[in-house]
Amino acid sequence: MSSLLEIDEDTPAKIKSTFGQSIINFCNILMGIGTLSLPLAFNYSGWFIGLLVLFFSMIVTNYAAKILIRCLSYKEGLYTYPDIAALAFGNIGKYVILVFFLLEVIGASIALVILIGDSLQVLFPDISLILLKIGCWVVLVPLTIIDIKYLSYCSLLGVLAAVFLAIIVAINGFTQNEQPGSLLNPMQTDLWPSNWNNLPFSFGLLVAGYSGHAIFPSIYLKMEKPEKFSSVVDTSYAISIVVYLITGVCGYLMFGNQARPEVTQNIMSSSDHLKILNSFIVWLVAISPLAKFALSLHPVNLYLEIRYRSSQCASNDAFFLFMRFLSRTLISTFIVFIAIVYPNFDKMIELIGSLLFYTISAIFPCMFYLKLFGNKLRWWDWLFNIVIILVCSVLSILGTLWPILNM
């Protein structure tokens, strides 16, 4: 198998990311689609269960990120999530997990295109949503060609958008007296779910902000100092939970049971007193997923291109570059097409969040870890990992089947 570094056009010395760039890329992956739906998630779950699942997801996925990279370092020649799966469970396990891996990455990318389109339609309500998404395609395809290092500069915009969103949600709440949309006069909220039938819908929304484990190997392998990966993870998670709590808690207090799939939709429809500021944050939310889209697809592109390098086209650089461009363009086109056909942001996040985020971001890393390092682990390490697998499996099954049964 060819080296990861041979896939990119830059030299190894040039493509490494600094500690700060790695944090920015990591935060950009975490603070994305999940942030906007947190008020709706709390509306479904109530305060107690919502906060419990949110913090449980944070702790579990933080741990899973670290053991995933330990598995990646098990031996030389591992570069992607499916590579770890192949080592742990052989070819059958590899292909089963590869399906989940591809669905998770592509599903998250579809959600990003839906988010960009929805945000742009808030700003340009007279333009067709389909036309706006086609416009997204024109911008997204070139971004998938750019090296991951340079995306860190675009990723900074994504991180700033999430931070500014939290700040502007709070500013809106403290500068408005009338419901809905006020923190001074908050809406009625519930400690427990007001409708228990809606509770499973929240599971996928609450874990969505902690997904991205399929992309973490790419970030790790691009680091100048990979030994600092755990510090990157902890710093990024600390930043993200602050943003999540401000956005989710303030958003739920402000809009209660009127919370919409994207909190920006609530903000733009409920208040005119900060119209310019609110329009600014919607613009940021619309633009920031652009770099995240390219980052999200990087593991898929990387996996395919490693296969190109190991095939007959490896000897022909021109043909390899053509296949590289063609595959990235076709994948982006397919994703935009699905986003046009299936335009419901919250339903997409509920489904892929429960089915895929729990499996890719928690269950599979623990399974890899037990398989590769099981003979070196103490009994409480085994117990901890098995509990994670069981609890996340229950959340995943409930969160996946419930929307299907309630269609």
UniProtKB/TrEMBL annotation:
InterPro entries recorded: AA_transpt_TM (IPR013057)
Record's keyword annotation contains Transport: yes
Membrane-topology descriptor: Multi-pass membrane protein
Residue span(s) of domain Amino acid transporter transmembrane: 16-402
Transmembrane segments: 23-41, 47-65, 95-116, 122-143, 150-175, 195-216, 237-255, 280-304, 325-345, 351-370, 382-405
Localization per record: Membrane
Pfam family name, one: Aa_trans
GO cellular component terms attached to this protein's record: vacuolar membrane
Keywords recorded for this protein, A-Z: Amino-acid transport, Membrane, Transmembrane, Transmembrane helix, Transport
A GO term for molecular function: L-amino acid transmembrane transporter activity
Lineage: superkingdom: Eukaryota
Family under the similarity heading: Belongs to the amino acid/polyamine transporter 2 family.
PANTHER family noted in UniProt: AMINO ACID TRANSPORTER, TRANSMEMBRANE AMINO ACID TRANSPORTER FAMILY PROTEIN
Name of the molecule in the record: 15962_t:CDS:1
Species in which this protein is naturally found: Dentiscutata erythropus
